[in-house]
Amino acid sequence: MDTPSPSNAVFQGVKIGVGWAGSYRMTQVFARSVGGAAPVAIIAPALNRPDWVCGGELDLGWVFPAVRATWALEGKRSWAGEPLSNLRSVARFPRLDRQLFALAPWCPVKDLAQIGREKRAVRLGVRADELYEHEHAILRQYGYSLADLEAWGGRWWHVGVGLTALDQEISKRDVDVVIGHASHEGVWQTVAAHGFRFIGLEEHVMAGLENEGYARNVIPAGFLPAIQEPLLTIDLSDNLLVTRAEVDDSIIYTIAKSIDRNKKRIEEASVTVSYTHSQMLPIPFLTYSSTMTQAITRQWDTKIPLHPGAARYYREAGYLT
Hints:
The chain has 321 residues and is of the alpha/beta class. It contains 13 helices and 14 strands.
């Protein structure tokens, strides 16, 4: 990433790195309720930077999906640097998210494999964060890359989450394929409403992704009205708030306590948009509310070791023995 690292000289309190959407709003909730600890600064964009957390530029940060933290801790899979052995978890925020794949009615191919097999010049919208990590992994299993798409005369670009993010491209028939996560966001409702066909991954592709450390998930029929049958995809569950082992126990204890006591408000803050499709789209759809996270339960249950301050709070609260 080209984003400059935050400087310790700027702020001497607790620095929490977030993204611009749900992680920002949810952090606001528990940060405002933190008492008896150092003041909190919320720094964005700094999503998925456990290296900054473990290196001291940040004190806490959000990782999504949670598997990225496991890769960073172990120094495996897509994590390019040294293992972050001092990475510790504070809280898990359950998130039911999946990778989606949608082909336009005018798309010149029937599936993702055909793009690589025939070296087709498709127009690909990528609904993802700016790491494009999952998309690179998926296309790699199909034998090509985003760079290959450009070499074949196609193009790709970043797509936002909003209801109107692809309006111009759809009206001009200037997008053939949309892939990415944020499956509860409005852009996918718009894609579905305009007749895009949703597809799943082939079993051999999923097996290859599992070898890279991903877990499988199944998009159920009816998840969107346009999805008529279950579709195989990768699992992108959970937001994870992480810190480093060296952060003061009392600070992490206080933050874990604030999260636990404000769970309902955090869940409410994760609702990103609410609208009725019949008022905004040419095809009637159900009323839709987009939620970044599910009910926050077992927030101490992570694959990353708990920070001692968080573990102390969870024990005192009766969650851990």
